[in-house]
Amino acid sequence: MILSPWLLALALVVGLLVLIPARRLQLAGITSRTIGLYALLLWILAMVIAVRPFGARILVPILLIAYLAPFVASPDQVHRVLRRRPPDDRPPIKDVTPPDERIEP
Fold this sequence. Notes:
The protein has 105 residues and is mainly alpha-helical. Helices cover 65% and strands 0% of the residues. It contains four helices and no strands. The longest helix has 23 residues, at 5-27. The protein is elongated.
């Protein structure tokens, strides 16, 4: 199966466009695995819309939000959304109950 040159050029251009928000995520301190999954999902969605525009009414807004989100949100907000804290990493619960003071007669 030989791919046409326009399809290869389109895949390359879409791939380069996907790297722009991926770089923003890298500067925010997101893990490389998360950035890779984000870029791959964004590239696949863009290629599906470009080659077969079925479901474009739903996919185009999702694609636009996913592409623009790293630019609109600050790096701290992006990191807060994507951060997962393991249950053992939580700080211990602090007892703030006042001590029981007994009045002696």
